[in-house]
Structures are given as structure tokens and as C-alpha cells.
């Protein structure tokens, strides 16, 4: 189906959104779902620097389901950043601070769910799977007039159909130390770089020991593993854009396709071609 969008957007760029954000002072949004309804969906693209998704860190009194219709959507919470692909969604309970934007050329959807309709025990963020049928139902509800009884019945069905995603988007933990965060931002902007840890530390006037300790303390993993997550997050986006595996390997900093495929399997548990098949099955038919 065709999708009408409004255009909030941000500055165009290929990297994950990692710029310093004011997590201690999130703006607070009011309820977006009008009674007696249970949910509503807003659809945005990234063509203009205005609108709700350009307001930085914020919260909502409703729960929020973030999902891309086409392309990819970058979602950042206090300690993680992830890039969602078609078929992937992220559930945020009411009051969860976050920042989000459609990536260049993408269309992103934000489904707000009133607290009274939240499934039991859904009190923490979680990855959700949105197949084609569920995506189209949400967009149909957003675009089509219908009697209240039918709308409410369909909204209840949509909520019942929500399920966790076995192929969740890759979460990249974010260092809290601002010195290490600056280094991490540079790596996210150039995931293909073959600079060593020692070279990255030197560029930021840091000791290798300081960087090593900060990554273990702040993100719970060694630097090498963290950089692999950054590269695989980019890889999933490129694969979803139908880039050949050998080109994806090169763009992500791997000398050979076999080395890339092995690294991809270590992070995702599957091969690049199998991952692409799964994502293609969930993408909109008219993408």
C-alpha cells in the first residue's frame, strides 16, 4: 500500500546516531492516543529537520513501538544504539528516554500504545517482530476511516499479534566516559578503518590501558568485540539494501568475504545470505 509521511528528519549520514545527547533532561511528551482507541501510528521520513523525531532525547506517557517501513531507523536509548531494518521493531515502555530518526532515504513508523492496552509483563524494552501483514495492518489503521467498533477490534488483534523477534537488531553498547565516547564516535563513522586500538588511542591522546578498561567497564566487552558489533550493524543495513556480500565485506573493513562471513556468523548466529533471506521475507512487498 502507499504510505503518506510527514518529514521530521535529521542531518543525513551513514553512521549510527551516537552524538552526545542530554539523557539527564529528556523532554516529556504527553499521551498521543486519543480515547477510546488503543494505539496510533505516526509515519516519518528524513527529508526535513523538523518534527518529533528531531527533538533529541524525550519520553512518552504511552508505550512506543519503533519500526521502519522502508530503509532503516536508528534508535538510541541511554546505553545502546541500534539500527532497525524492515521486520524489526523495538518496544519501549512508557517513560523510556530515547532518541530516534529515519536514516537517509528511509520511512520510519512510530506506533504509540496506551498504557491500558500494554500486554502484561511488558515493562522492559524488547525486540519485536513485525511481519508484512502486521505492518500493513498498522498502516491501514493509520490511513483508513472506519467505525470505532471495527477499529478497536483491529487494534486489539494487532496487539495480540506482537511477538518477540528471534532476529533482533544488533545493539551496540555506548561508552559513558565522554573521552571514550568521542573515540567510539569516530569508529562508528569509519567502521571500515583498519586502525589498531593503539592507533585509535593515540589519536585521542589516551593510553591503551585507559581505553581497554573503559570498554570493559562501560560496555561489558573488549574493544575488538565492540568494533565487530559496529561493523555488523552496518553490514545488516547494507545487506538489506541488496548490496553483494563481497561489497559489504569491503565496506565493513574485511579483506576477504570468508573473514566477513565468519565474523557475521559469530555476531548474528547465521550467515549473511541466510540473514538476508529472513529480512527479505519480512520487508514490504513494494520496497
What is the count of β-strands? 12
The computed structural class is alpha+beta
pLDDT averaged residue by residue: 86
As a whole number of angstroms, the C-alpha radius of gyration is 19 Å
- In DSSP terms (H or I, runs of 4 or more residues), the helix count works out at 9
Keywords: DNA-binding, Transcription, Transcription regulation
Pfam families: AraC_binding, HTH_18
Domain HTH araC/xylS-type: 177-278
Protein name: AraC family transcriptional regulator
Description:
The protein has 287 residues and is of the alpha+beta class. 37% of the residues lie in helices and 19% in strands. It is built from nine helices and twelve strands. It has helices at residues 132-143, 148-161, 178-189, 197-203, 208-219, 223-240, 245-251, 257-268, 272-282, and strands at residues 27-29, 39-45, 58-60, 63-70, 73-76, 80-84, 88-92, 99-102, 107-113, 126-129, 163-164, 171-173. The strands form three sheets. The protein has a six-stranded antiparallel beta sheet with strand order 2-9-4-7-10-11. The chain has a four-stranded antiparallel beta sheet with strand order 8-5-6-12, with helices on one face. A two-stranded parallel sheet has the order 1-3. A hairpin with a 3-residue loop joins strand 5 (73-76) and strand 6 (80-84). It is globular and about 65 Å long. The protein starts with 26 loop residues before the first strand and ends in a 5-residue tail after the last helix. 37% of the residues are buried. Pfam families: AraC_binding, HTH_18. Keywords: DNA-binding, Transcription, Transcription regulation.
Amino acid at each position: 500500500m502507499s504510505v503518506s509521511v510527514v518529514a521530521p528528519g535529521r542531518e543525513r549520514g551513514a553512521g549510527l546516531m551516537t552524538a552526545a545527547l542530554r539523557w539527564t533532561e529528556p523532554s516529556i511528551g504527553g499521551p498521543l492516543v486519543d480515547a477510546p482507541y488503543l494505539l496510533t501510528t505516526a509515519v516519518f521520513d528524513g527529508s526535513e529537520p523538523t518534527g518529533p523525531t528531531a527533538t533529541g532525547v524525550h519520553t512518552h506517557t504511552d508505550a512506543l513501538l519503533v519500526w521502519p517501513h522502508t530503509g532503516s531507523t536508528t534508535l538510541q536509548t541511554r546505553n545502546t544504539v541500534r539500527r532497525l531494518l524492515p521486520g524489526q521493531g523495538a518496544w519501549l515502555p512508557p517513560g523510556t528516554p530515547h532518541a530516534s530518526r529515519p536514516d537517509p532515504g528511509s520511512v520510519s513508523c512510530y506506533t504509540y500504545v496506551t498504557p491500558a492496552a500494554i500486554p502484561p509483563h511488558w515493562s522492559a524494552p524488547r525486540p519485536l517482530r513485525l511481519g508484512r501483514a502486521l505492518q500493513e495492518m498498522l498502516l491501514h489503521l493509520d490511513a483508513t476511516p472506519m467505525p470505532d467498533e471495527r477499529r478497536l477490534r483491529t487494534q486489539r488483534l494487532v496487539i495480540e499479534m506482537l511477538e518477540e523477534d528471534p532476529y533482533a537488531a544488533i545493539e551496540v553498547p555506548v561508552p559513558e566516559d565522554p573521552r571514550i565516547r568521542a573515540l567510539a564516535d569516530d569508529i562508528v563513522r569509519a567502521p571500515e578503518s583498519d586502525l589498531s586500538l593503539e592507533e585509535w588511542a593515540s589519536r585521542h591522546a589516551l593510553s591503551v590501558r585507559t581505553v581497554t578498561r573503559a570498554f570493559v567497564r562501560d560496555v561489558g566487552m573488549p574493544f575488538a568485540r565492540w568494533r565487530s558489533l559496529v561493523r555488523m550493524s552496518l553490514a545488516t543495513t547494507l545487506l538489506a539494501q541488496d548490496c553483494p556480500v563481497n561489497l559489504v565485506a569491503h565496506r565493513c573493513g574485511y579483506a576477504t568475504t570468508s573473514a566477513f562471513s565468519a565474523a557475521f556468523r559469530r555476531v548474528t548466529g547465521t550467515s549473511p545470505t541466510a540473514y538476508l533471506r529472513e529480512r527479505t521475507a519480512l520487508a514490504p512487498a513494494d520496497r
